[in-house]
Amino acid sequence: MSMDPKDGTPKREVEHYVDPAPFNPAVTEEMTAAQERFFQASQWQIMWWKFKRHKLAVWSGIVLILFYLCVPFAETIAPYTPNLRDSDHLYAPPQPVHLFHDGRLVGPFVYGMKSSLDMETLQWVFTDDTSDVQRIRFFCNGAPYEFWGLFDTTFHLFCPAEGGTLFLLGTDRLGRDQFSGLVYGARLSLTVGIVGVTISIVLGLFFGGIAGYFGGFLDNIIQRMIEIIRSLPELPLWMALSAALPVTWGPVWIYFGLTIILGLLDWPGLARAVRSKLLSLREEEYAKAAVLMGAKPGRVITRHLLPGFTSHIIASATLSIPAMILGETALSYLNLGLRRPAVSWGVLLNEAQNISVVTVYPWLMAPVLPIIIVVLAFNFLGDGLRDAADPYK
Q1: What is the mean pLDDT of residues 271-282?
Q2: What DSSP letter does each residue of 32-52 carry, written as one string?
Q3: Long-range contacts, stretch 136-139, CB < 8 angstroms, 24+ apart
Q4: Which H or E run includes 157?
Q5: What's the rounded Cα separation, in Å, for the pair 179 and 260?
Q6: What confidence tens digit (pLDDT) does each residue in 206-255 have?
Q7: Using one digit for the tens of pLDDT, what is the confidence trace for 313-372?
Q8: Which residues pair with residue 3 across a beta bridge?
Q9: How many C-beta neighbours within 10 Å does residue 378 have?
Q10: What topology does CATH give the domain 180-389?
Q11: Closest CA to 148 of 59, 85, 79, 74
Q12: What is the DSSP-derived secondary structure letter of residue 12?
């Protein structure tokens, strides 16, 4: 042990640790290659890598993809058309799917239903007929429909047995299949959010871009307009504008009218986000260089400023879609939005307005389940995109 020359006390030596593991240059090269790959990656690649680490957001995206597959193929997936009535099965309960009958494997099937009238309550009572085994047919011919308005066909993903029934989620007061209604209703309920958000993004980028880039008088006018719109209560304003739509309009025009209303009332939040971003980005050197080189304001905004926070716009738009889906559902539930023969999840919920009916026929509340799943999936997906787009995480 050596001595300290200053005070002559024993000097404590620091232990030297050597890793006994053999040096592996391949590991170092692999780490270096991974770092180089990260440094050379584009913004979208980094965003995708960060998004994949958010497992809940990834699974939410998969769930939404499965839901949106119902949009183009609703006719093929649903065993019935949404407005097909069965007068022999009014308020029929859901038919559970079985695999085994009398201890042997039969395959997917449902039991037939026996109906009887309860003379005390004057209600139809349905019971399973275990002697009537109705096997579910797959890739079969069933109820005719017009595919995408192009040609007539009868092909379905699955169908009831010949002469049988297949009400997976029961029927309503007119004997219309609830499951088929949910599949068809996804077409309107899911697309109304996308179309409405598209309108909102266009208006938000336009007004927010003008306010953030030019500032001054234009900025003051746009900000006051945004404050007026945001000060109005949202749901009553939706109801007032929806009630103003002509009752003589067909389902298609009502649908576009609703999407325009939802889009026109949703753009102020995005416009303020765009304005705040442009106020900071327009002072960057690359933006000033573009102006000095003679670039017009439109090119500076669209080619130099907006791409800098495109990922944030996508994340905010993803979080806005659930609000529009809920808005359409609420309006249709209150009979101020879409109406039959158009089918949406809100239109189906309109059948469940009477609480006494719901207590007796609870399967009429089935549209609530896909609404909850889709809204939660969009929120989780939006959280994942927002975290992936954050440059500081």
Answers
A1: 81
A2: HHHHHHHHH--HHHHHHHHHH
A3: 136/97, 136/107, 136/108, 136/109, 136/110, 136/160, 136/161, 136/166, 137/161
A4: strand 151-159
A5: 29
A6: 888 888 878 788 888 988 888 888 888 877 777 787 778 887 788 878 88
A7: 777 788 788 888 888 888 888 888 888 888 999 899 888 887 777 888 889 999 999 999
A8: 10
A9: 22
A10: MetI-like fold (1.10.3720)
A11: 74
A12: P
Asked whether the beta carbons of 112 and 134 are under 8 A apart, the reply is: yes
Global pTM reads 0.80
Which pLDDT score, from 0 to 100, does residue 22 have? 61
Distance CA 299, CA 385 (A): 27
Whose CA is closest to 391, among 59, 44, 107? 44
The residues spanned by each domain of the chain are 95-166, 180-389
Q: In this structure, what are the phi and psi dihedrals at residue 41, rounded to the nearest 5 degrees?
A: -75, 155
Tokens found for residue 144: 């005719």
98-101 vs 104-118, strand pairing mode: antiparallel
| Measured distance CA(356)–CA(256) in Å, rounded | 34
Residue by residue, DSSP assigns 160-193 as PPTT----TT-B-TT--BHHHHHHHHHHHHHHHH
Distance CA 197, CA 203 (A): 10
Helix locations, the chain, DSSP H: 25-40, 43-52, 55-68, 74-77, 178-214, 216-231, 234-243, 251-264, 267-281, 285-292, 297-299, 310-333, 345-349, 355-360, 368-389
Structure tokens at 30: 């692999």
Tokens of 266: 């949703």
3-state SS assignment for residue 214: helix
Yes or no: say if 160 and 177 are a contact pair by the CB < 8 Å rule. no
87 vs 90, 176, 365, CA distance in Å?
A: 6, 9, 21
CB neighbour class for 270 (10 Å; exposed up to 12, middle 13-18, buried from 19): buried
One-letter amino acid at 71 equals V
